[in-house]
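Input record (one chain):
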Amino acid sequence: MTGIPSPFVYWAQTEEFVTLRVALTNTKDADVSLHPTKLIFSAHGHGARGVHNYSFSLDFNQSFNTEESTFKTSDREVLFTLKKFKKTWWPRLTATPQKPAWLKIDFERWKSEDGDEEEEARDIVNDYPDLYKNLRKEELGYVKEDFRKVYLLVYNLFQLVGFTFIFAVLSIQYYRDGPGAMVHAFESVGPAMKFVQLLQILEVMHAMFGYTKGGIMAPLFQTLGRAFILFCMIDAEPRMQTKPVVFYLFMIWSSVELIRYPYYISQLYQLEIHGLTWLRYTIWIPLYPLGVLCEGVIILRNIPYFEETLRFSATLPNTWNFAFHMPTFLKVYLAFFCFPVLYFLMMHMYRARCRRLGIKSWKKFK
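The corresponding structure, as predicted from the sequence alone:
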């Protein structure tokens, strides 16, 4: 077979079978010699080098049952279904680690089919991640990251940098100027805080489209609550921007995120950092109530301002025949929405803490 080109051959496996898909169309005069550990193939057809005679030979990693192995020829390809002697996943197809350049991995066929229609088909990506990773590296020469992981890494890194900037600027100004720096908190980091807060709306979309695990309600409540405070209560009322409570609120929000985003990054790459995990599911215990307390103070302080300016209020008569009184809404928000949402978020984090840490994890960290 010297001098005869080889066609592209795509292989995949289940626990019981190996499939070989020979990329030849209009195949004629196929000659197949199958042995327990070797396959010799030659045929005339249209392949990578046009209409030509093609051939190849493969020495397998393990043995096949030749009596229960089959192949069929069609106008599009030649398909081999080779029955393994032992039900197991092979680390590679060939007997030697070096595989020929024309042998490719057919990842679209990497599904486990047990013949039972009621049993859900398994996916090598989830069931055998190490094997899949090694095969991908063997095929491509490197491990190709999926788009979801790369996107989430970039997003979490960007948010981490943003909140680190906010926390660092506020800390340096306070260290340099003392309590007098509090009145300039919004002026210094307000634009950055508004930008990263707008980006956090994407976290609701992540949960909605399955990019991250977990429900939609918790990130939705937290994101909308923060956006309401930041844009409607602080950004819309200049007199509130110089209050020390804004400094405290920004420091609390940033402290939470400086733990949360590194934890998310570690989970993307399955890195178990016990101290970081413990902080992620513990830091909220003091900071969530303090954050809601600051938000409540901001709303309470804003009520007389909005009574004076009637910002966001609508009085009759108007085109829509609709009346809305913002100060009354803020009172209702404080009484019936603000603290119930805090309770919901606290219970959500408490259940997550119990699932993630538990008694064993707590003792291990201690």
